[in-house]
Amino acid sequence: MMRRCFQLFLMVCLFLPNLLAQRGGELRFCLRAEPKTFNPVIVTDEPSEIIRYLTGGVLLRVNRQTQQVEPELAVSWKILQQGRKINFKLREGLSFSDGTPFSAEDVAYTIRTLMDPALHSPTADSFRSSAGPVKTTVSGTYRVAITFPAPVAGLERLFDQVAILSSRSPRREMAVLGPFFTAEYRPGAYVLLKRNPYYWKRDENGESLPYLDSIRLEIQQNREIEFLRLERGQIHLIDRLDPEFFDRLAAESPSSVHDAGPSLNSEQMWFDQVPTSPIPAYKKVWFESRNFRRAISESIHREDICRVVYHQHASPAVGPVSPANRFWFNAALKPHPFDPRGALRRLEEEGFRLQGGVLRDRGGHPVEFSLITNSGNKPRELMAAMIQQDLGQLGIRLNVVTLDFSSLIERISQTFDYEACLLGLVNVDLDPNSQMNVWLSSASNHQWNPNQKSPATNWEAEMDRLMRAQASVIDAGKRKAYFDQVQQIVWEEAPFIYLVNTNSLSAASPSLRNVSPIVMLPQTSWNAERLCFASQTARSQP
Amino acid sequence: MWIQRIARNLLVILITVLLGGLLGATLVRVAPGFGVDEQLLDARLSQDSIQALQHSRDAERNILLFYARYLAGVFHGNLGVSHTLGRPVAQLLAERLPVTFYSVGIGLLGGWLLGLALALPAAMYRFKAYDLSSTLLSGLFLCLPSAVLGIVFLFVGGPAPLAIALVVFPKVFRYARNLLLQTYALPHVVTAQAKGLSGARVLLWHVLPPAAPQILALAGVSLSMAFGAAIPIEVIYSSPGIGQLAWLAALGRDLPLLVNLTVLVTVLTLMANTASDLANVACTSQPQ
Amino acid sequence: MRKQRQFALGILVVIFSASLMARVFAPAPYARQFRQSPNAPPSRQFLLGTDELGRDRLSRILVGSQVSLLLAPAAALLSTLLAALVGGVAGTLGGWWERLAMGAADLFLSLPWLFLLLTVRAMLPLNVSPLLSVVITFALLGSLGWAAAARVVCAGARGLRTSDFILQARACGCRSLRLLIKHVLPSLKPALYAQFWISIPVFILAEANLGVLGLGVAEPLPSWGNLLRELENYRSLLADPWLLAPLVLMVLVVSCFQIIIPLEDFPS
Questions:
Q1: Among B78, B156, C69, C119, which residue has the least CB neighbours within 10 Å?
Q2: What interface predicted TM-score (ipTM) does this complex get?
C-alpha cells in the first residue's frame, strides 16, 4: 500500500512539472526594425509581417513544418475552373478579438479591401496574374466564393498571407482572429501582444490556445545587443542567428541553439547585361558570354566560403531553389564545381589570354570589373573579399565597392550603372510562381536585364515560355516538370551565379517548451500558440 | 542696445535656418538613391505597382516647390509625414526630442565637468606625469570608435548619457587645457601668482576672464559635437530619440523627416552659438 | 620635457618609416587569405594572429598605417588651416564679415554632409583607383571639418581686436593681412593645435565610417579605421587581447603628436 502510494507520488512529481508547464508567461524576442503598419493588407516589411503572423487569422495556413496547406478559418475549400475560382466553407461561431462575430461578410470585405488597385499591396499582386476585377460572392453566413480574372497557380497557398479583417468592428484592423492581438505599441521601444480571449483553437486536451499570456516584441537593430539580451535571459528567441553567435552560444549552452539545415535563402551575384547601361562596350561583351559567366562561377571556391564566412552553417547553392524546398527543388542538379583550370579553358575559348598574371580579352583589355554589394552585411563583405582573391588567381582584378542600400537599388533598377552585384534572395514562398517576375524577361525583377520588350536571347525566350506554361496548369507534377527545366536553363546559362544556401540558425531559451525551429520564417515562433514555459518561475524580468 | 542686438541675432538665425533647410533638402534630393524604395526588389509586385512606387515621390522631385509647400505647412503646424515610419513628423519629434535632450544634456554636462576637471590641474600645476597620463587617457577615448564605446558600455550596463559624455570630454579637455595653459602664462596672471594670491582667486579673477571668449565659443559648438555623438550611441542603445530617427531617415532618404531634422539641428546650433556670442559680449564688456 | 619630446619624436619617426616601408617589413602579404587559419591566435607565423579571413593582422596594421598616418594628418592640417583662415579673418575684420563667416560655420555644423559624400561617391567611377578614392575621402573630411574650430578661433580673434598689442601694431601702420598672420594667429595657436590634434583620430575613424558608403579604402587595403571595427566584437576582446593592437598603436601615435608640441610654445 505504502509502496503504491509512493509510486503514485513519484509519478505525480514526474508529471507535475509538465502539467504545471501549460499556461502563462510572457515570451520576448526582438524585431529588427520598426514595424511600418498594423494593417495586414498593406504589410510589406518583415517586422509588420511577424506581427501579422502572430495576430492575423487566415483562411488557410501553410504548415511551416510540413510545408502543406491546412484549414484554419476555412473548414474546407474547393478550387474550380482551373484555379480561377475558390469556394470556402468557414468555421462557425467564431469571434474577433473584441467579440465581433466572424462571418463570410468579413472575408468578402477583406478581399475587396486587399484587391483595391490603388493599394498596390504585394500580397494582392501575388493573386493578380492579369488585370481585371476580383469578385467575391457570399452565399450564406459561412460560405464565400472568390473569382479571379485569370487562373492563379498555387492559389490556395497564397491565402496564408491574407489575414481576415472585420467588416463591422469599431476597432477596424486592430480586431483580429489570431492567437494574439496588439495591445500596446511604444514607437522605438516595443510592441506588446496579448492573448486573444476569443481565439478558437484548442489543443488535443481541449485546452484553449495560446498557452502564453503575452508576447513582447522589443525593437532592436543591433545583433550584438540582441545576442547579449538572449544570454542574459531578457529575450527568449532569436531567428536568423548569425553563424558567429551560433558558435558562441553552442559552446556555452548547446541545447539553446538549433541548426535546421539549409534555408530557402541564397546569396548570388550577377552581371549587368542591360544593353543600354553606361559600361564600356567591351565589358558588355564579356558579361553576355555564357562561358565567361560559367568560368567566373567555376573559379569561386564555394566550400571555402561556407567554411570561413559561415562556419560550416551554409552549403554551396545550386540555383534559385534550395534543397529545403523539398517539392520544387530539381534534385538532378549539383552546384557548379570549383575548377579553375576548366574556368581558364572556358575563357580561352572566348579569346581571353592569361599573360604575366593578368587576364586579357581579345582586344587586349585587362579583365577588371567592380562588384557592388550593400554595406552593413558582414558575411557579404567577407564573401566579396574571398571572391576577389579567387578571381585574382585567374588574373582578374575585382574591385569591391560597398554602397548603402538605396544607392545600390538605384544602380541596379534605375541607372544600371554597375558591372556586377552581390546580393541575397530571401524566399518566403515555396511556390516558384511567386518568382514569376524574376524569370520573365519583360518583368522588373529580371535583375540582369529587366523590362525587355522582347527576349534578348533564346534561352530567355524559352524561360518565358516555361514560366507561362507552369502558371497555366493546375497539376503540380506538370508544373514541376516545367520549372525543373527553368532551373536547368539557369544552371546552364548562369545569369545568376548562385553561391551559397545559408542554414536556418536560431536560438531558443531552454526554458521554453514545444520549440521546434524550422526552415521557413518565422523559424521559432511559427507555433507561437503552442509555446509555453517550463515552469511558472520562468524569468520574466524585463 | 541689447534688444537691438538680440533682434539682429534673431533675424540672422531666421535667415540661416531657412537657408539651412533648403540646402539640407537639396543635398538629400541630389544624393543617389532618392525616391528609390527597398520594395522595388519585391518580386511579388506587378508592373503597375512598381510604376506607382517609382512615382510615389514625384511630389518631392522639384525641391524648391517642395520647400515652399513645407514652409507653408509649418505655419499651420503641419511638418509633413514621414515615409519610413508612416507617421506625422510633428508627432515623431514630440515623442523623441525629450529622450535626446535628456541624454545629450546629461552627456554634455558630464563631458564638460570631466574635461574641465582634468584640464584645470594640468594648467595649474603642470606636472609632467599628470600631463602625460591625461594625454594618454583622452587619446584613448578619442581613438575609440563610438560604436565600440557604445557596445562596451551597454555590455557593462552603463547609461547612454555617460557614453556621450565620454565621447565629448576628450575634445573639451584638449581645448580647455591648451587655452588655460596659454592664459596661465600671461604676464598679469604670473604677477598675480607671484603676489601670492590664492589659486582660486587667480583662477576666477585673472585666468577665466581672458580665456572666457574661446571657452564659451567651445561650449556653443560642443552642442553640435554632442548631437553628432548621440546618433551612433542611440542606434546602439536602441534609444528612441532624434539620433536614431536621423539614422533611419538617412537610410530611407526620407525627405520630409530630414528637412525637419536639419532645421531642428540648425536652430539648436544657432541658438547655442548665439547664446555663447552674447555671453562673450557680456563678459568682455565687464571692466577688467 | 626635452627628453620626452625627443622620445615621442623618435617613436613617430620609427612608426612613420615602418609604414613607408610596410610592404618590406610585413611578414606576409597583407591581402593573402590563409583560409585554413581564420581568427588564429598569435603564433610564430602570425605575430598578432589573423583576422576573419585568415589575413595576417600585423601586416595589415603596418600597411594600414600608410593610409592613416600619411593622409589623416594631412587632412587635419587642411581643416586647421581653413579654421585659422576663416576664423581669423572673421574675428579680425568683425562686423558683417564676421556674421557671414560664422553663419557659414553654423550651417557647416548643421547640414547633413552624409548626402554630399554619397553624391561624391556616385560621381566617381566604380573602378576608381584606391589611391584616388582615399585621397578624395580625406580631402572631403578636411574641407568639412573646420567649422567648430573656426568658431573658437573667431571668438579668440575678436577678443584680441581691442587688445593693446594689436592696437599698437595698427598704430604702427600694420595692414590687416600682416596683422592677421604675424600678430593674431600666433596668439590663437592653442586652439589651432587642439584642433589639429583632435582631428587626426577623428578623421581616421571617420574614414572607416565612410567605407560603409563606398568611399575610403577599398578591399583588400586595410586602414586603421576599419581595423578598429574589429573591436565591435567586444566579447573577443577579453579572450583575445591582441585585437587591441591597432587601438594601442593609434593611441600611442596620437599621444606622441601631442607631446612633441612643446608647452613653452604658447606665447602670451
A1: B156
A2: 0.88
